[in-house]
Amino acid sequence: MEEIRQLEQLKQMIEEKDMVALKDEVSRMNEADLAEILEELDTTDAMLVYRMLPKDKAIDVFTYMSHSQQLQLIDAITDQEMLDIMEDLYFDDMIDLLEEVPAAIVTKVLAAASPEERRQINEFLMYPAGTAGAEMTIEYLALKPEWTVEESMKFIRENGEDSEMVYTCYVVDEKNTLLGFVSLRELVVADDATLVEDMMTTDVIYVKTLDPIEEVAERFQKYDYLALPVVDKEHRLTGIITFDDILEIIEDIDTEDFHRMVGIGGDSDMDYLDESAWSLAKNRIPWLLILMISGTISAGIIKHYNPIIAKYIILTTFIPMITGTGGNTGSQSTTVVIRGLATGEIELKDVFYIMWKEGRVGLVVGVILSMVNFIRLMILGTDLGVSILVTLTMIVTIILSKLLGAGLPILMKKLGFDPALMSAAIITTIIDALVLVVYFNLAGLVLSYIV
């Protein structure tokens, strides 16, 4: 509600052309809130408000904007304003933005950069997307082992303002080889004459430049560090990844996995409201086509068992309930296993234990649901033979669905594919076909003896 009030207030000031009050209001607002409000304004009004901001605050607001909003702003400002923004951004934020903007803007930024900055920018842009090297920043504090605490604190005071992380200082030799780290807390309470090498921790948790970002995220979740150093193949410190950056990456990974699980493609960096209807449609059509065509398998199975259906037409009444139950139970197991694989809670070696556990879960759930359904059918006056058939089918269906739902994502992982590709829709399609085979084969056996 507060943001809505602020938005309406800004709109009123713009409409009344009260620039003094507008400048005073936006200078007091929180940067993250202001970034959201700017997204609600049209481009002209957003630019007017943005140019009212003090330079330091404007940069902070820019970092809170979505990528699409940042690109819209860059299209609307002058080249010099764009270069000013790039110059004041943290290095990793600048690299992320350069990967999105047109080549002409990258060329302008490189032309305005110093030779050393140009080399660093080109080096970072060459790291493959989705690796630690592509996400790291070079704005960290590195101390020398021979420095005293007094020398180290002087260095931190002089350079800490430009660093993304001052709480952890890394220790390197003359070749920039990573030797250890020391916390700011330890430096503050230590004697001024103490050498860094005498107090540093040498057991360093690090990642390599070409490590997949998913592995980096797992390291953060395991060790709860504020930052992790990134080293090259010679163990030289090339940058760090901070926890706030990895939080954004984890969110993107989770969004991408969720899209895959429900059979949706698309660019996770683009907001839903910013994507066109055609863009959304073209990302969904391939999966829908695959599922539609695969649905003909179920139709073929039903056609194959037409003689049984013709004899016991009532069997068709229970097909939606049986296949729906199978799909739902299978999707539950799939979701749990995919999430477990993503967080590292479940590993490939656990496959037999998982299958055994899901099998037992399926048995318990199957018996309970089947008995409830059997009582319901008998109350409704359904034939005894049909009630027994549906009950047995439900038990087999639920156990089979639990096993498939748990096993197929693990199989995908074993084959080197993303387990999230085994979406709930695909699981449901596979289970539907198998359930129909079970249902009609049991019908042939059970009804021939009982009816």
From TrEMBL:
Keywords: CBS domain, Cell membrane, Magnesium, Membrane, Metal-binding, Transmembrane, Transmembrane helix, Transport. It comes from the Bacteria. The chain crosses the membrane at residues 285-302, 361-380, 386-412, 424-450. GO terms for cellular component: plasma membrane. The keyword Cytoplasm does not apply. One of its GO terms (molecular function) is metal ion binding. The keyword Transcription regulation does not apply. It is a multi-pass membrane protein. Residues 200-256 form the CBS domain. Coiled coil: none annotated. Its main location: membrane. It holds the Pfam family CBS. It is found in: Cell membrane; Membrane. Acts as a magnesium transporter. Homodimer. Belongs to the SLC41A transporter family. This is Magnesium transporter MgtE. It comes from Urinicoccus massiliensis. The lineage of its organism: Bacteria, Bacillati, Bacillota, Tissierellia, Tissierellales.
